Request: fold
Amino acid sequence: MKHLDVAVLGGGPAGSATALLLARRGADVGLYAAPGHERPRLGESLPPAVNPVLHELGVAAGFAALGALPSYGTSGAWGTGEVSSQSFLFSPHGTGWHVDRTRFDEMLTTAAARAGATVFPSRVRRVHRIVGGFAVDAAIPAHADAVVDATGRAARISRELGARPARHDRLVCAARIVPRRGDEPFCDTFVEAVADGWWYSAPLPDGHRIVACFTDAPIAARAGLATPAGWLAALAATTHVRQFVRGRAGSPVRVVTAAGHRLRPGAAGPGWLAVGDAAFATDPLSSGGVTSALRMATAAADALTAGDRAHYVALVDGMAADYFARYSEIYGWERRFPGSEFWRARLPGVTNSTTSPEPRRPPAASRRSCSSGTGPRSRPES
Ligand SMILES: Cc1cc2nc3c(=O)[nH]c(=O)nc-3n(C[C@H](O)[C@H](O)[C@H](O)COP(=O)(O)OP(=O)(O)OC[C@H]3O[C@@H](n4cnc5c(N)ncnc54)[C@H](O)[C@@H]3O)c2cc1C
Reply:
């Protein structure tokens, strides 16, 4: 049986970055990175704020080799039918990016291995406490002094260790991939609010474009969003986003959960902590999930090294408080659909969550036009 200082469970951005940082500090780290089957992986747009974080992690060269598509800003119709844009031109961090998420995640896992982490390409079945640590039940089992739950929105390991994800919405995403073409009205990120939620579209580095509808699960079920017919009927309610699809066959519709949560009573317990989406998952409208996961990884590595878990829990709680304030503000900008179930659930003070005490409020959108790339509003950077 392999004995580890730390077993990191989940090979997304949060898990790989945590393993990388701990290995650099000399810890004996095992990273359980089961290969995912999602192709392409959703979550491909990165704001400029990711650039300093990639530098701090020492993976900027690996990132450059991915050939990501630069993103110069975001455009959208949010709070009004008119399109406005926000350019990244004046961002101190440079451009944002559209990445191949599968390759991006693999780049981080490779960096962790180079730093000295042992990568186990294996799913974790269970984790349970043993005297002095934890037993990791997987195809390649191990004992570890400490474990890190980096299993994403599933928060699989934290649940086993007694924590509970307090869900704060029922958001789902119904996405299709379509070929890009030269005459698109907007070539960068685009967001459009509609009565039942919001649509998002962004270019992918391989010549395609993602077009996705975000709404709450009951609305998606009633609208049959998982079927091409239901998805196209919903798309017809958009003014701008439908232009990205016009006349083009798309991939099958893929529906995934995008529900937000935070971990209760906190993001850490004796001998374990959660990082990234497992600890605190946000609405993808922010495009900040990956950047936030990488930042949390630094804090998690510090907490594991210094043993100060209370500080880590407070830091994640602080991130959540900032997020909820911003979320309320941005969803509050959209007031055109007062009778809508989706928007009503996001009014300040309303909670349709299972447990969250935070008020729910509104977010904002951003994008960039091919021609100008300037304007007043955008998808928040982080
Ligand atoms: C529809 C959608 C669109 C998004 N768009 C964006 C975007 O444009 N930009 C952005 O920054 N963020 C976006 N996000 C959020 C972003 O994807 C996440 O915040 C980010 O991936 C979190 O990283 P993570 O490592 O915590 O979790 P994940 O990336 O989810 O990684 C978790 C990993 O753990 C693995 N795992 C799970 N269970 C086990 C197990 N039992 N054993 C071993 N491994 C396991 C999974 O296979 C996965 O590889 C989006 C999210 C959604 C749902």
